[in-house]
């Protein structure tokens, strides 16, 4: 059996396990299939996710369920204005031994886990927010001048309330760029909310089974990076990402007039990875144009910004991304 045959078999096996994992997750996080797909995509790509949604929509429940189903050691930190970096990273304390000798001992913070839920991340000060930057990018932290490796895999799923901005600190662009995906969590539809009522207000709630382990997830991430991506899909990704840079020679007039700053190369990398993840989750061996279109907003929206004039006119990033997709010769047929 050749390498291509081996890869095909691995992809098919992974697709079956992912289908089982999705079924388990949606038993507790009912409906919202797109949110589940995007969150799983972040994990499959080895990245982090920023969950944007109002309180009470199940974001915490989703992260807890993911930790169980994916077999990850998960921890939760409630971000508040008085939270300090040491509360996340850990600190050294002076301990006295039974013989009277003293030595510093490092006490690990909650960041030393495999799945960290950063609840309401924008409520912490910029100093505390920045404590996660090195962890998210390099999977290690520096405490007291010493670099300490984090667990593998390591993922951050952060939540943010989109409307209550009093007493919050907006995430800086550098940290936003570390999130592979922005995942918008909206209200459930009527039928989904009916199912939620039936499932969560009875005498007992359903439990979920473990499907993956940490080692299984690392192996899945390796398989994903070996998935082939066609030349036309890669060119579509490059064309779409570069279309939102106002200084690009081929940028449209609308982009030049509305975009303050556009996405960088990390957006292209994120789109290249996440289209593979979406193909896997939908039972396909290779990604197609529909995957690029579906992942465009989650990958791009937090990596670009409208200028003041565009905001005053009521422009939105959603409509801008849709317009550029409609203008793309490679993507408009699949839109």
Q: What is this entry, summarized?
A:
The protein has 335 residues and is of the alpha/beta class. It is 47% helix and 16% strand. The strands form four sheets. The protein has a five-stranded parallel beta sheet.
Give your account of this protein's structure:
It is a single chain. By secondary structure, this protein is α/β, with parallel strands linked by helices. It has a domain at 228-335: Helicase, Ruva Protein, domain 3 (Orthogonal Bundle), CATH 1.10.8. It has helices at residues 3-28, 33-44, 59-69, 85-89, 126-138, 173-176, 190-200, 214-226, 231-242, 253-258, 265-281, 289-300, 308-312, 317-327; strands at residues 49-53, 74-78, 90-96, 102-108, 115-119, 140-143, 146-149, 155-160, 181-185, 259-261, 305-306. The strands form four sheets. It has a five-stranded parallel β-sheet with strand order 2-5-8-1-9. Strands 3-4 form a two-stranded antiparallel ribbon. The chain starts with a helix and ends in an 8-residue tail after the last helix. The mean pLDDT is 89.
Query: Rounded to an integer, what's the Rg over CA atoms?
Result: 21 Å
Structural class: alpha/beta
Q: In the CATH hierarchy, what is the superfamily of the domain at 228-335?
A: Magnesium chelatase subunit I, C-Terminal domain
Specify the number of helices. 14
| Side-by-side strand order of the widest sheet | 2-5-8-1-9
Provide the helix percentage: 40-55%
Q: Low-confidence spans: pLDDT under 50, at least 5 residues?
A: none
Return the CATH topology of the domain at 228-335.
Helicase, Ruva Protein, domain 3
Mean pLDDT: 89
Tell me about the largest β-sheet. 5 strands, parallel
Cα-to-Cα separation, first versus last residue: 38 Å
Along the chain, the helix and strand elements come as HHEHEHEEEHEEEHEHHHHEHHEHH
Please state the second-level CATH architecture of the domain at 228-335. Orthogonal Bundle
What percentage of amino acids are in beta strands? 15-25%
């Amino acid at each position: 059996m050749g390498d291509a045959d081996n890869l095909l078999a691995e992809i098919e096996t992974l697709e079956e396990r992912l289908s089982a994992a999705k079924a388990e997750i949606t038993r507790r996080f009912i409906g919202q299939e797109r949110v589940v797909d995007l969150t799983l995509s972040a994990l499959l790509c080895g990245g982090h996710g920023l969950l944007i949604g109002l309180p009470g929509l199940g974001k915490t429940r989703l992260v807890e369920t993911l930790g169980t189903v994916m077999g990850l050691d998960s921890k939760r930190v409630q971000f508040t204005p008085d939270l300090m970096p040491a509360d996340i990273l850990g600190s050294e304390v002076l301990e006295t031994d039974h013989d009277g000798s003293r030595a510093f001992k490092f006490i690990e913070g909650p960041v030393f886990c495999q799945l960290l839920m950063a609840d309401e991340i924008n409520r912490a000060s910029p100093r505390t927010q920045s404590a996660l930057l090195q962890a998210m990018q390099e999977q290690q932290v520096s405490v007291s001048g010493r670099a300490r490796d984090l667990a593998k895999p390591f993922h951050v799923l952060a939540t943010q309330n989109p409307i209550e901005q009093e007493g919050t600190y907006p995430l800086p662009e550098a940290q936003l760029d570390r999130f592979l995906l922005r995942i918008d969590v909206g209200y459930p539809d009527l039928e989904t909310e009916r199912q939620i009522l039936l499932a969560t207000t009875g005498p007992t709630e359903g439990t979920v089974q473990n499907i993956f382990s940490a080692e299984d997830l690392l192996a899945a991430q390796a398989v994903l990076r070996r998935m082939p991506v066609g030349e036309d899909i890669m060119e579509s990704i490059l064309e779409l990402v570069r279309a939102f840079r106002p200084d690009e020679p081929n940028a449209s007039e609308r982009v030049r007039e509305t975009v303050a700053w556009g996405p960088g190369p990390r957006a292209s990398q994120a789109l290249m990875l996440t289209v593979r993840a979406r193909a896997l989750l939908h039972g396909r061996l290779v990604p197609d144009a529909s995957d690029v279109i579906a992942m465009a907003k989650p990958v791009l929206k937090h990596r670009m910004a409208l200028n003041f004039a565009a905001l005053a006119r009521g422009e939105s990033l959603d409509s801008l991304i849709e317009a550029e997709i409609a203008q793309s010769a490679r993507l408009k047929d699949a839109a």
